[in-house]
Specification:
Strand content: 5-15%
Order of helices and strands: HEHHEHEHEHEHEEEHHEHEEEH
Structural class: alpha/beta
CATH superfamily of the largest domain: Type I PLP-dependent aspartate aminotransferase-like (Major domain)
Bound molecules: pyridoxal-5'-phosphate
Distance between the termini: 51 Å
Radius of gyration: 21 Å
Number of domains: 2
């Protein structure tokens, strides 16, 4: 069966989307604010683990199929989840975890509740395996730019099986209070619904609560090493649930011979040293946010819907400038060497209102954005004969 997938738009000057990303990847001096990867991670333990494992040529062996027990254990400890209740499957990234969770939770008559803005790849998976996705508009102050328990209650029907809770939310950085998480856990239990708790950005948040603590039987937690660990290119993550929910996921694993051993060794090193480096990365991210806020505050027609953000990215609303986010992103890339993301990558309804900027990069690079942003908006307005409101 061939599934329908939205075609990605090929950026001007490139033959394909792949060519565009290859160009970005290879451009060493690029200011990387367009993907939520982490360029602040400097811990040598991760690098050493990769080197040591490759020197030992560990990679000639297959790893255990569920992942190294040490790594599974470290992930549960990191989350404070009880090993007698929860099980872990190591995957080749949160993306694989999402696919496993969604493909085993939904079927052709069940539907999903998700937010707009959100991470649209998840919704693509849900549309593929379930009946439809209710993309609830959350880009407003009234709902705090997030999928609140009230919105979830209002949108549940008899066939709802999955709630997509991206927390903190890509692209906007909103997170949930403990009370909200407890209420969402109750909703899941009352209605026999699964919460897919995507905690990819958890470690950037000031505070964070796991749904799994309050509704273990109704939660699938998706974990990534791509963000705070700075290991996006190593493609490693995990999915965590009770054994009952894990059984079908494990039966659906494609990569039955396990996940990349070097990535697993690096993940172990990252977890073992996490308390030595996490605070510095978080502090730099908060400082970088402040600098971006300064730039936004002095640029007429722009504002930050959520500040501070609890992720390593935030949204800058430019709707009152009269500019199209696609044009602003193209201008910053072509003329200022700054890669940011236009809103339509994370929202169907509000994508024309904002750009998304990631800031887990060195502060000197954020300073370039800080100094260029206002000028970029004004230059583009002049070029397009837009008279600022
Ligand atoms: C909410 C969310 N989940 C999952 C992912 C993918 O993570 P991974 O690199 O582990 O596949 C991303 C990537 O940006 C994301 O924003």
């Amino acid at each position: 069966m061939v599934f329908k997938k939205k075609e990605k738009k090929v950026p001007k000057g490139f033959n394909s989307v792949n060519e565009f990303f290859d160009y970005l990847y290879k451009k060493e001096d690029l200011i990387w604010m367009g993907q939520n990867t982490n360029h602040l991670q400097k811990v040598e333990a991760i690098e050493d683990a990769l080197i040591e494992a490759s020197h030992k040529r560990d990679y000639c062996k297959y790893p255990p199929p569920e992942g190294f027990p040490e790594l599974k254990q470290l992930i549960l400890e990191d989350l404070g989840l009880d090993e007698n209740i929860f099980d872990v499957q190591i995957t080749a990234s949160a993306t694989e975890s999402l696919y496993l969770a969604i493909s085993t939770s939904l079927y052709h008559i069940t539907n999903t509740i998700a937010s707009d803005p959100g991470y649209l790849i998840i919704n693509n998976f849900c549309n593929r395996f379930g009946n439809h996705v209710k993309e609830i508009p959350v880009y407003n102050e009234e709902h705090g730019y997030k999928l609140t328990p009230q919105l979830i209650r209002e949108n549940i029907d008899m066939e709802t099986k999955l709630i997509i809770l991206i927390d903190p939310l890509n692209p906007i950085g909103a997170t949930y209070t403990k009370e909200e998480i407890m209420e969402i856990a109750e909703i899941a239990k009352e209605n026999n619904i699964i919460v897919l708790h995507d905690i990819t950005y958890r470690d950037f948040a000031r505070e964070h609560t796991l749904v799994a603590q309050y509704a273990p039987e109704h939660t699938i937690t998706v974990y990534s090493f791509s963000k705070i660990f700075g290991m996006a290119g190593l493609r490693i993550g995990a999915v965590i649930s009770t054994p009952d929910l894990m059984r079908p996921m494990r039966a659906s694993v494609i990569n039955d011979l396990g996940t990349n051993v070097l990535s697993q060794e690096a993940a172990i090193a990252g977890l073992k040293t996490k308390d030595q480096w996490i605070d510095e990365i978080k502090q730099t991210c908060f400082k970088n946010q402040e600098l971006i806020k300064e730039a936004v505050d002095e640029t007429p027609g722009t504002f930050l819907p959520v500040y501070p953000s609890d992720a390593n990215m935030m949204v800058i609303d430019i709707s009152q400038t009269g500019l199209d986010p696609v044009d602003l992103a193209a201008y910053l890339l072509d003329e200022k060497n700054i890669f940011v993301r236009e809103g339509n990558y994370t929202s169907k309804l509000f994508g024309d209102r904002y750009i998304r900027v990631s800031y887990s990069i060195p502060t000197e690079e954020i300073m370039v954005f800080r100094n260029e942003f206002k000028d970029a908006v004004e230059t583009l307005q002049k070029r397009q004969n837009i008279i600022p409101k």
